[in-house]
Write a structure and sequence with these properties.
about 140 residues, 2,3-Dihydroxybiphenyl 1,2-Dioxygenase, domain 1, eight-stranded mixed beta sheet, 8 strands, about 20% helix, binds zinc ion
């Protein structure tokens, strides 16, 4: 498997507008898009740093994954996404190597990219996402 770069870092926030204000006013970044991914019950604000995005994630339903995460752990880094070519091959390679997957097949993530999550139990406690590298 060949990871080209960190595609994005997903950060769980309780209030998207407050968090956007911090990233824009205090860190001087610019939010270039906001998108709702109904499937994952999140609203996402995107920032670009080099070729890596920051995704601020706010839950749209209390029972969504981000809602539950914040309830348990509070705001903070939720997952890290690695860009890979041939994501389907990567998933079978990981599975063959005994890595537990949350998604055995890809699903559509933000910005229409194919993504899949690995089980944090297999990854030293980190929720890792693999994300198709379109470039
Ligand atoms: Zn992500």
């Amino acid at each position: 498997m060949n990871i080209s770069h960190i595609e994005h870092i997903g950060i769980a926030v309780s209030n998207l507008n407050d968090a956007i204000k911090f990233y824009e006013d205090k860190l001087g970044l610019k939010c270039y898009s906001i998108e709702e991914v109904k499937d994952q019950k999140v609203k996402i604000a995107f920032f670009m740093i080099g070729q890596t995005k920051i995704e601020l994630l706010e839950t749209t339903e209390p029972d969504g994954a981000i809602g539950k995460f914040i309830e348990k752990k509070g705001e903070g880094i939720h997952h890290i996404a690695f860009a890979v070519k041939e994501i389907k091959d990567v998933l079978s390679e990981l599975e063959n190597n005994g890595v537990q997957l949350i998604d055995k097949t890809t699903r559509k993530g933000a910005e229409g990219l194919d993504i899949a999550f690995l089980n944090p139990k297999s990854a030293h406690g980190v929720l890792i996402e693999v994300c198709e590298d379109k470039k």
